[in-house]
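User: Here's a protein and a ligand (FE2/S2 (inorganic) cluster). What would the complex look like?
Assistant: Let me lay out the input and then the predicted complex.
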Amino acid sequence: MPASRFRVDENILSEVAQTRARLLESQHLPGWFYTSPELFEHEIDTIFMKEWLCVGRLEEFPNAGDYAAIRIAGEPLLICRGNSGEMNAFRNVCRHRGVEVASGEGNLAKFTCPYHAWVYDLEGNLMGAPHVKEVKSFDAGNCSLPRVRLDDWGGYIFVNFDPDCQDLGDYLDEDDIRDFAAFLQPENTRLSHKFVVDVPCNWKFVPENLMDMYHVGVIHKESFGGHFPVANFRFNLKKHGYNATYESYTMAPKGVTLFGTMPWLRGKVEELFACTTWIRPTMNIFGRHDLIQPWVAHPIDEKTTRVTIYTQLPEEYFDTPGFDEKNKIYGDFIEQVATEDLAMLESLQNGVGSRAFEPGPTVKLERAIHHLQNYYLDRLMQNDDTARARRQDDCRDALAEAKASHGEARDGGYSKSFQAAE
Ligand code: FES
Ligand SMILES: [Fe+2]
């Protein structure tokens, strides 16, 4: 596939200089960053074909032959559990003329291309193809579905389209994800609810909105934002992303848990415990005392994004009396909260597309958005030296600010107390 022809030139550099500036001197990205089809093509090459992307939970594929065919930024992808029990990912592109060999999700013993019936096994090998005997030097061994790298952490399945990418563990460790999230034990939880919705907005607005602590007490005031002490909010900036521990109601009506604290957090956290971290480029994980709730965004085109919200609860809850009723209340609640966000995402997209839009200033509660937008510019420009210097500035500023507002005693917050308790 040809690389995009988008180039970062002097004009673009001067246009984003204000986003590159330090937080309280900076502005949000120009509107065309969220609307340009040419830029979107460049993002696919520089971000979505390079980074690890979450595509689901292991428990969604319990048996050999369980599969899902999805598209990320237009690229067809087939994920399935093979006969040996291993998870596989392939380009969902037939080696004959390119038709997607599988669609939707379900369980199959083999994949038969719907166009001319080439048949592939669960390892992507071509098992048979009609009328190819007479084709000169036809080599079925050379017609496997191209493999896509797949790995998992915490029960989450990740893929990477770049065969030369770094290992998933190293990738996550660059932002301390595994360290930070270990106490939540996502591997001991199970998917209890999944909400999938196509949102008419650019993909970047989704993670930006989820790390925007400025809006929570406004649009979510009636749902979960009624207790959200922003003065104590501290962003721990990492190389690309961030994490934070803070206070908030859990994601249930009136902030009242129906399940109680997850067994491994009992005695370790309060009911108002909340935490979040971001896995570049499009996965925001939220933890509460009683659940884990990641949001994943996959771009469809420059103005449309598929958002999937997973809710996970401890495995042992699923067989307890009344589970289904309680689970439905949780499911309905997150869909309500999501609707509050989705309305803003759609409106953001409309607004930045206006000829009247001029990017406004960033405030302290948008520190993580500023950091994300700069990670994003780093990836587009692939200028590591500038990026490194800027990240160091960002992290120094965040730490100085945290020390000024909380003092040394609280430095490290919950994550440090967990490590000490283990
Ligand atoms: S395109 Fe798949 S068999 Fe022809
Ligand atoms: Fe929100």
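Summary: Confidence is low (pLDDT under 50) at residues 407-422.
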